[in-house]
């Protein structure tokens, strides 16, 4: 694992979180219960504090960084897609940031909102709850539908489940030279629930 202290501050990781061995956490980083941090994620807490609240995920190749005068926060069940950059911003509870999006300093993404893939949210943007934001710069398109929020939550549950699956089974290995006969396929473990049960 790549954990580094910086000026006396050591990252804090809840025992029920999963941090991939290739991720790098530096300094003032706080990781909550049930958080998933993917391969090659970089969390540089060498200026401002970085916080991932319970049940959030930060996927492969994501970057979190900030400034001394503000915390960079992903609130509970926040869902940060592959390659996204969060810089000095706040991601609301149960919100999703799409792949390769950039959220700039002082921006606030409202709870249950969705930022479309490859969007750029300007510094200082103040969002509201359940907004669909898209584009460069990102703009409000419409409200997030019940169906979109349902599928977002289902995908977040899959990442929360991936925490325990990774803790139990992910190991560094030497690759096989050829595929074995009757190679099994991975099975998802998140049961699809009726919308009324998703909260």
UniProtKB/TrEMBL annotation:
Supply the InterPro entries for this chain. Answer: Hexapep, Transf_Hexapept/Carb_Anhydrase
Q: Name one Pfam family in it.
A: Hexapep
List every stretch annotated Disordered: 176-199
Extent of Basic and acidic residues compositional bias: 180-199
Which PANTHER family does the entry mention?
A: DYNACTIN SUBUNIT P25, GAMMA CARBONIC ANHYDRASE-LIKE 1, MITOCHONDRIAL-RELATED
Q: Which NCBIfam families match?
A: PRK13627.1
Q: What is this protein called?
A: Carnitine operon protein CaiE
Biological source species: Limnobaculum allomyrinae
């Amino acid at each position: 694992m790549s954990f580094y202290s910086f000026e006396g501050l050591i990252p804090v990781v809840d025992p029920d979180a999963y941090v991939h061995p290739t991720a790098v956490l530096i300094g003032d980083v706080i990781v909550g219960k049930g958080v998933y941090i993917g391969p090659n994620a970089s969390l540089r807490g060498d200026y401002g504090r970085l916080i991932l609240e319970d049940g959030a995920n930060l996927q492969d190749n994501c970057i979190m960084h900030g400034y001394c005068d503000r915390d960079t926060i992903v609130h509970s069940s926040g869902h940060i897609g592959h390659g996204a950059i969060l810089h000095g911003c706040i991601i609301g509870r149960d919100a999703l940031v799409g792949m390769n999006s950039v959220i700039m300093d002082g921006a606030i993404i409202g709870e249950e909102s969705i930022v479309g893939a490859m969007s750029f949210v300007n510094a200082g943007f103040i969002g509201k709850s359940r907004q669909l934001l898209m584009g460069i710069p990102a703009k409000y398109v419409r409200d997030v539908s019940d169906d979109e929020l349902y599928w977002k939550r289902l995908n977040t549950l899959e990442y929360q489940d991936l925490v325990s699956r990774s803790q139990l089974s992910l190991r560094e290995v030497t690759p096989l030279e050829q595929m074995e006969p009757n190679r099994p396929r991975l099975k998802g473990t998140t049961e699809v629930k009726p919308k009324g049960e998703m909260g």
